[in-house]
Specification:
It is built from seven helices and six strands, in the order αββαααβαβαβαβ. With 245 residues, the protein is α+β, with helices and mostly antiparallel strands. It has helices spanning 7-20, 36-39, 43-46, 125-128, 151-163, 181-201, 229-235; strands at residues 23-25, 30-32, 132-133, 168-174, 209-215, 237-243. Strand 4 (168-174), helix 6 (181-201) and strand 5 (209-215) form a beta-alpha-beta unit. The strands form two sheets. It has a four-stranded mixed β-sheet with strand order 3-6-4-5. Strands 1-2 form a two-stranded antiparallel sheet.
């Protein structure tokens, strides 16, 4: 018959096991250290469970598409302007942003003269004299060659254009309606180019000048009835037009 352990002793032994991790051996209630197998974690506890690979979301570096990367953009959800990435006001609505507009409350009138400053302005008189029809430019009959009597006027035109280096000009040549329309178109183009070449030779940068052969497309209206020689002569002309940027 085995030895009966009093209930209080059993309770005390259980408490020791819970606190120390030791086991009670036999009736003498000796404490036994846990074995190595009992303290080693199980294989299941040491092997991490496989996880599904996480999908990395694509991050647009410039989500509002204004050319300013999100990290530098003070308004990343608003398509703005560099360098801040935010919209800049155009108080007078003239297309020149307030940051560049000298006259923020007065709209630019876009006449081809100093249009970038944002201020209304008038074309200077000396420059205005060389806009529209330029009287005094003559060509040899049926040729693109300039007559000598045109040279002084064109020298003056070149001098004026050199005073205003930001001004760009279109030179257009016009013919009357006599003859073949295609031939007149080609002749007028060559005449416009002859004027441009003269101005370039006098120092005006070629990139500031454009040539256009209008042919008989823009005639001077006749003064009632059939066109007379004087009417046709008026249609043969050279025009300068200041180009807006």
């Amino acid at each position: 018959m085995g030895f009966m352990v009093p209930s209080r002793l059993v309770l005390f032994a259980s408490l020791l096991v819970a606190l120390t991790g030791c086991r009670v051996r036999g009736a003498d209630m000796a404490l036994v250290e846990p074995t190595a197998d009992e303290t080693r974690p199980s294989v299941e506890s040491r092997t991490p469970e496989p996880t599904e690979p996480r999908e990395v979301a694509y991050v647009d570096p410039d989500r509002d598409g204004d050319g300013v990367l999100n990290r530098d953009d003070f308004c990343p959800d608003e398509r703005g302007h560099p360098p801040s990435g935010c919209l800049v006001a155009d108080t007078d609505g003239d297309g020149v942003l307030d940051t560049e507009d000298i006259c923020q409350l007065e709209p630019e009138n876009r006449n081809g003269f100093e249009d970038a400053d944002g201020c209304p302005d008038e074309i200077p008189r000396d420059l205005a004299n060389f806009t529209g029809e330029i009287k005094g430019i003559y060509f040899h009959y049926n040729k693109p060659a300039l007559k000598l009597q045109s040279y002084d006027l064109l020298r003056e035109a070149a001098a004026v254009l050199l005073r205003y280096p930001d001004v760009r000009v279109e030179v257009s040549a016009h013919t009357d309606s006599i003859g073949d329309a295609e031939y007149n178109k080609k002749l007028s183009q060559r005449r416009a180019e002859a004027v441009v070449e003269f101005l370039v030779a006098r120092g005006v940068p070629a990139e500031r000048l454009e040539s256009r052969g209008a042919g008989e497309e823009d005639p001077i209206p006749c003064c009632g009835g059939p066109c007379m020689n004087d009417d046709r002569n008026r249609s043969r002309r050279i025009e300068f037009a200041i180009l807006s940027r």
